[in-house]
Write a structure and sequence with these properties.
mainly beta; 7-stranded mixed β-sheet; 4-stranded antiparallel β-sheet; 54% strand
Length: 120
């Protein structure tokens, strides 16, 4: 069973930066999209950013400009650079990898999550 291995979370002061990384523990074929979601206490999980196999990106509108998603296709690794962090960015961040078969069926893989805490 392939797992997604996340790293890079932690405690940071407001205005600081963090870089999250996520890579599968094994090979996943036909990756169509990789991305990051987050879930704050008492809130629903929400999309942070996604990047397709073609390199197209999409962001939560409120985060665009502070967060940047990128990927290393050769390593099947996705990164999330987070700058100018605010206390409201505090959440568990989850990596997502979507595999799309040739007949259009999607399979989603999820990481266990990495905690990001923004506090002075």
């Amino acid at each position: 069973q392939v797992q997604l291995v996340e790293s890079g979370g932690g405690l940071v002061q407001p205005g600081g930066s963090l870089r999250l990384s996520c890579a599968p523990s094994g090979r996943i074929l036909n990756i169509s999209q990789m991305g990051w979601y987050r879930q704050a206490p008492g809130k629903q999980r929400e999309l942070v950013a996604g990047i397709t196999s073609d390199g197209n990106t999409n962001y939560a509108p409120s985060l665009k400009g502070r967060f940047t998603i990128s990927r290393d296709s050769g390593k099947n690794t996705v990164y999330l650079q987070m700058n100018s962090l605010k206390p409201e960015d505090t959440a568990v961040y989850y990596c997502n990898v979507r595999r799309t078969t040739s007949w259009g069926k999607n399979y989603d893989y999820w990481g266990l999550g990495t905690q990001v805490t923004v506090s002075s």
